[in-house]
Amino acid sequence: MQHIQHRRITTKLYAPMASIQESRQIIGQRLKEARLNSGMSQHDIAKALHCDQTTVSRMERGLISPDCAEIRLLSSVFQLSILYLMGYPTFVVSATSTG
Question: How confident is the model over 20-44, as pLDDT tens digits?
């Protein structure tokens, strides 16, 4: 049986300090970018979220923020990390395996 050695990660992950409005803008930009890269329409996203197309438009423009459940669903739809969609920088965490 292989033993996996866990390393304690002491570096904290911080999102850049931003106001609520700036955070909404960042989330909206990432949502729109992900939607366009996936070739989906706002209507397609609205169907997945069980909401109106105008709600998706308002999210993308930073007027409203998706709630936690919507962020989780969008993460799954776009196969992106929740942290990325919420505006955190991209990062890689690795674990080491010992034999």
Answer: 999 999 999 999 999 999 999 999 9
Which CATH superfamily groups domain 3-10+18-98?
lambda repressor-like DNA-binding domains (1.10.260.40)
Question: In 3-state terms, what secondary structure has residue 98?
Answer: strand
70: exposed, middle or buried (Cβ count in 10 Å: 0-12, 13-18, 19+):
buried
pTM, entire model: 0.73
Low-confidence ranges of the chain (pLDDT < 70): 1-16, 90-99
Place of tokens 């010992």: 98
Q: Are 14 and 87 in contact (CB under 8 A)?
A: no
